[in-house]
Amino acid sequence: MDVPSGHIRAGFTTRWGGVSSEPYDDFNLGYHVGDNPRYVQENRFRLASLLGVMPVFMDQVHKDRLDNADFLTSQQIGEAPATDGLLIGVHDIKVRHCAAAVMVADCIPLILVASDRPAGAVVHVGRKGLLAHIATKAVQALGNPENLTAYLGPSICGKCYEVPRNMQEESARLAPGISSTTSWGTPALDLPSALIAQLAHAGVGNVHSSPVCTLESPDYFSYRRSQRTGRCAGVLHIEDFSGVF
């Protein structure tokens, strides 16, 4: 999409189109899962070739910390920051191209996109991050929530995310409406529904949520399906046309 002084692209990868072998076949983007690092590097290069820039990846820690991807890009940081959200365009740092990625294998890859300026965020929203309101913090960091669009990528659905009863009850105290029931009748959590509610409460009215469940679809990696698996990504690429480069 074109925005004032910039251009924004956002999307979600599948598990296909890369070079990794089983059980990471084949477009695995995570170094930390046990895949051959050379394969992961090639997969990331393929993604970068599509974008025209290498995305900033995170060392995701299931907390509520946010960092600035444009600052990391400008400083050419060699290692991934220990964070669960990357912001682009929230500071006056003149980076012509900037891309950021959030890796997932059942958690929600959330992309926030501003319509009034070249700005946005990628956010890793698992159970812990959702209960810590990381998405709300990202919305507040970007500002002007009425101008934000949220994209929730494929994730495990409320009919498949089975949890112990005590975890369900604890989660419901922090995020009303998160409770669900699996298709086989056991306690579950519906993270997408809870996240949509949090975004609405934060003032984001334009929300698009993928209907795809990562556990059910063979096109996506799922940690619940197999703990030895790869990572898909939600990717945000922003070109800032303002200023002098």
TrEMBL record:
Query: Could you tell me which SUPFAM superfamilies the record lists for this protein?
Result: CNF1/YfiH-like putative cysteine hydrolases
In its keyword annotation, does this UniProt entry include Hydrolase?
Answer: yes
Pfam families given for it? Cu-oxidase_4
Q: Which InterPro entries match?
A: Cu_polyphenol_OxRdtase, Cu_polyphenol_OxRdtase_sf, Cytotoxic_necrot_fac-like_cat
According to the UniProt entry, where is the signal peptide? none
Source organism, top-level taxon: Bacteria
Keyword annotations from UniProtKB, A to Z? Copper, Hydrolase, Metal-binding, Transferase, Zinc
Which Gene3D superfamilies does this UniProt record tie to the protein? CNF1/YfiH-like putative cysteine hydrolases (3.60.140.10)
Catalyses which reaction? inosine + phosphate = alpha-D-ribose 1-phosphate + hypoxanthine; adenosine + phosphate = alpha-D-ribose 1-phosphate + adenine; adenosine + H2O + H(+) = inosine + NH4(+); S-methyl-5'-thioadenosine + phosphate = 5-(methylsulfanyl)-alpha-D-ribose 1-phosphate + adenine
Q: Which PANTHER family match?
A: PURINE NUCLEOSIDE PHOSPHORYLASE LACC1, UNCHARACTERIZED PROTEIN YFIH
Which family does the record assign?
Belongs to the purine nucleoside phosphorylase YfiH/LACC1 family.
Q: What does this protein do?
A: Purine nucleoside enzyme that catalyzes the phosphorolysis of adenosine and inosine nucleosides, yielding D-ribose 1-phosphate and the respective free bases, adenine and hypoxanthine. Also catalyzes the phosphorolysis of S-methyl-5'-thioadenosine into adenine and S-methyl-5-thio-alpha-D-ribose 1-phosphate. Also has adenosine deaminase activity.
* Record's protein name: Polyphenol oxidase family protein
What is the species listed in this Swiss-Prot or TrEMBL entry? Actinotignum urinale
